[in-house]
Amino acid sequence: MIQVSQWTLFEAKMESARDYENPFWDVTVQVHLTAPSGRRCTVDAFWDGARTWRVRFCPDEVGEWQWKSECSESSDMGLHGQWDSFRCVPYTGDNPLYQRGSLRLSDNRHYFVHADGTPFFWLSDTAWNGVLRSKEDDWGHYLQTRQQQGFTAVQFVSTQWRAYSQGPHGERSFTGTERIRLHPRFFQRLDPKVTAINEHGLVAAPVMLWAFGEKDPGQALSEGDAIRLARYLVARWGAYQVVWILGGDGDYHAERSERWKRIGNALFGQRHDRLVTMHPRGQQWVGDEFRHETWFDFIGYQSGHGDSPDNLRWLVMGPPARDWRTEPILPIVSLEPNYETHPAYQSKKRFTDFEVRRAAYWSLLIAPPAGVSFGHNSIWVWAEEPEVSEGHASIGIVAPWQEGLDTPGVRSMTMLRRFFDSLPWWQLRPAPELLVDQPGEGEPHRFVATARKEDGQLAVVYLPQGSVLSLSKGGDIPLCLESLKRPSIARWFNPRTGEWTNAGSVEEATCTFTAPDSSDWVLCIGGRR
Q1: Domain 2-92 falls in which CATH fold?
Q2: What is the pTM of this model?
Q3: At residue 418, what are phi and psi to the nearest 5 degrees?
């Protein structure tokens, strides 16, 4: 009997008994599985070219599993009525994804946890073109590097889109817009790269239907074709450790959201074993449209690439900072903040590691932290040599992907991960009441983000510009400074280097702290976990 480790991939192959004119549309194959406990579940098999069909499944119970196929063409005995069994055994390796199991929402619905309850910190790289354009060896080197740097996920696009209309040899994932023709070879080339993401301990976060322009799948395809294509992706990659990004860079407001709700329900209404979100256009909020959808698990947003006061004000005082208490509660994650080396929309200045850090720390402290994404122009484009990215002439000439592998911005993300790993980050909540004055009220680029544990035993403050910081110690709200055990240690964390500096003891009268210099700093008050 075949043995498969828990939380990894089981795969079986079937051969149809005859040819079909358009197998992608002409035939559907479902596989019904029975778990050792007797629980039953159903997954789609997918067409993989010629007469080949495959089923992939991630077993979550140890013991013997049984499966049986059901084909819409019941006379095709190669696809209908096939059956077998396999044994799921405990995983014994060191990959945290398989040790701890698939992701789900925490009980309080503010952050992500593995199946065993271990908190999962989302630190994702937006390698949009990476799976599509990379060579396998280069992709492996990239993943190994990101794993070592502390990243936990990789976002990528699954099909052709505005920045990748076709492969180097005219290759496309599908052709047409009505009853599309699927090209399995396109996805066969991607499979090893998606597998490699998980093998490096990283969660795969595919965008299923990019939706920015009229030629992107999310807009170009009829609703039925969009559902069919996305359903194929679920069948092909749904057994991996993935988080689905259903729509990419689209406008999902008002009546437009209804189409996406129908697509989401068609895909995940019966099988919702992986987290799902949407990736909207810059500074568009989709919480109101989608938070009541049963398949929608967290609010992804794009703070975008602007640097005007209005852009910054939306980020630190707009929906990302206001919506975290709205029922039903959902995690909030910035899926596309300021990209390193990306020119700002207003000033045209290229973002540096400072703007990358600022956007990241702001997003993590203005709402209960669940994680944040990172982006670099060279990585998302995945250029082999300097080029002007297809559909993105406004960002200028982009350097080869290797230039984005180890940068000040990337190193800042490594320091960010180390900082949050040193704390019970999942217990932090926004705490604007800690500040005597908020400099960001008049100058949003100076916004000071503050968070604390609800028991008051830990506070975290991010200053984008080092200065004198005055914290409140009065009022009827149980503030950190009043509830701390005296004396309590305050420390400065350097988000550029990861170094800690003593900021002194917090005594009854001590409410003022002076940053070491005029750069950005993080103040941490209270004990370590």
Answers
A1: Immunoglobulin-like (2.60.40)
A2: 0.96
A3: -65, -40
